[in-house]
Amino acid sequence: MEQNEQKDKSVFVTVGTTQFNPLTSSITTPEFLSFLSSHNYTSLTIQYGKGIPPSFPSCTNLQRTDDGDMTCFLENQTIKCQAYRFKPSLISDISTASLILSHAGAGSIMEGLSFPSVKKVVVVINSQLMNNHQLELAHAMKSRGYLFVLEHPEEVRERNVMEEVERFVPRKFEGGDGGEDFVKIVDCQMGFV
């Protein structure tokens, strides 16, 4: 069964150790949640770092559990939502995700691409960072077919953009062990070569 045909699909969003409030607020909008619902996504996990904890203003009935999980009721579907600042490891969240939305930090990109099974990784540029170094690395990885790039977090709210993400088929990243291709890309972007 192909990834797009799975009955239950999950989204994992990570901002790393910093904050990226424009991304976390964009993924809790009615537009994005409606997109998830219409494509059979049943869970959304958000690692929001030092940012503001996400709220879900579009949920008609947001129920919270004692362990911090939330269930968001949308029209005829529910989406289980989890949000946390940090964890010692993101491996379990990444391994179960059908779709990964990540800031463009090198470490987060490597984690998303390093799994034996090909993961659909969408990198969202945080243009608030000085020198916007993330843009160069993200585009270098995109040009090789490893990931999809969004230049602005607001793009996740645009159905046509997310439909394009759904159709994107990533190329297997062979450098998941810190391999040569990734090292060359980072060295080039950092000006070491």
From TrEMBL:
Broadest EC class assigned to this enzyme: transferase
Pfam families according to UniProt: Glyco_tran_28_C
GO annotation, biological process: dolichol-linked oligosaccharide biosynthetic process
Keywords, alphabetical: Endoplasmic reticulum, Glycosyltransferase, Transferase
Glycosyl transferase family 28 C-terminal domain location: 11-147
Localization per Swiss-Prot or TrEMBL: Endoplasmic reticulum
Listed GO CC annotations: endoplasmic reticulum
Stated family: Belongs to the glycosyltransferase 28 family.
Protein name: UDP-N-acetylglucosamine transferase subunit ALG13
Highest classification ranks of the organism: Eukaryota, Sar, Stramenopiles, Ochrophyta, Bacillariophyta
